[in-house]
Amino acid sequence: MPTWLVTGGAGFIGGNFVLRAIARGVKVVNLDALTYAGNRDTLATVQDNPLHVFVEGDIGDRALVARLLAEHRPDAVVNFAAESHVDRSIDGPSAFIQTNVVGTLGLLESVRDYWKGLEGAARDQFRFLHVSTDEVYGSLGDTGKFTETTPYAPNSPYSASKAASDHLVRAFHHTYGLPVLTTNCSNNYGPYHFPEKLIPLIIARALAGEPLPVYGDGKNVRDWLFVGDHCQAIRTVLENGRVGETYNVGGNAEMQNLEVVHAICALLDARVPRADGKPRSSQITFVADRPGHDRRYAIDASKLRDELGWEPEYTFEQGIAETVDWYLANQAWVKRVLDGSYRLERIGTAA
User: Fold this and answer.
1) Predicted pLDDT of residue 349
2) Fewest beta carbons within 10 Å, which of 168, 221, 246, 345?
3) Residues assigned a catalytic role
4) Can you identify the CATH homologous superfamily of domain 3-190+225-252+292-314?
5) Are 321 and 267 in contact (CB under 8 A)?
6) Which one-letter DSSP state was computed for residue 130?
7) CA-to-CA dists, residue 193 to 10, 82, 113, angstroms
């Protein structure tokens, strides 16, 4: 039975990853600081599962991380822990530097020291997988896609902090030999997504009859990746990826933000029509663009496909329908998340 130390495993992607790992018989030591985006409710189904050990704590707490490593002797560390919302990084960048840069450095030092003490097969097979974002590459024009060799050009405090963490991971491999892997993914969506991000925000506001804010002209393009596909990609890289390599993970689903909002509106209209019969697209409201808003992201995931055989299983149409249905069926989860720390308000407007 493998044992993995997963950081940030009460968040959106991390939580989905933990649930799937435990379902496959992996023992997961789940370290999460339970900031605003961490939610124990996401892990309710494994709360009493002996394969799940939840620890509230910070990745930068070196004594805590060292204790967990010594006690549980994991075969791998998967690092999801991060401040991840661009708008919040505009309003308060220091928290992003503290967690994504300083915290990642502390985690790497603790893991390096643990790995150095391993012997034989345990040392050879150990992996540190760092989960990152395509936003480190900056913004694309109308054509082209990000590859693993695209130069870094982050344009927000969030993406700059993730770029720094990526560089630290690379440096720990080249300097100390730590067996690392890095994945850079496109925009995720799916169950358990914190409702300040575009898709769950639009679902919540549409159901509440509130205006649906769309930045600028709504034509900013993202490649959308269903979270279940992303979790499978991470497992694939963890088990078979080449040490020291980076793998881009994309959903083959480039969409304008406005197209995404219209798709959600149509799905909700079909499932829970408004009482007045009006389409929910009538709630769309264009608002001032976000400072430094990258125009287009697109991922070339051919390296992951050609080397490791991974491709996304979900089309955007399948994934967004499943996502809308999940939120409709789990309104109690959404209401518990909206406990006062976030009320669907606009953030990230600082110049």
Assistant:
1) 57
2) 345
3) 134-135, 158
4) NAD(P)-binding Rossmann-like Domain (3.40.50.720)
5) yes
6) E
7) 11, 15, 34
With 0.90 as the threshold, say if the pTM is over it: yes
Which pLDDT score, from 0 to 100, does residue 340 have? 53
DSSP result, 201-260: HHHHHHHTT--EEEETTS--EEEEEEHHHHHHHHHHHHHHPPTT-EEEE--S-EEEHHHH
* Strands 254-256, 221-226: pairing kind: antiparallel
Task: Indicate the domain borders of the chain.
Answer: 3-190+225-252+292-314
Q: Which residue is listed with tokens 């840069």?
A: 101
- Determine the Cα–Cα distance for residues 105 and 8; give it in Å rounded to an integer: 15
Q: Where are the beta strands (DSSP E) in 22-126?
A: 27-32, 52-56, 76-79
Q: How far is CA 219 from CA 48, 249, 261, 286, 334, in A?
A: 45, 22, 11, 11, 28
Token duo for residue 74: 């994991």
How far is the CA of 156 from the CAs of 11, 142, 187, 291, in angstroms?
A: 21, 20, 15, 9
More confident residue, 339 or 210: 210
Instruction: Tell me how long the chain is.
Output: 351
Six token digits for residue 43: 């892990």
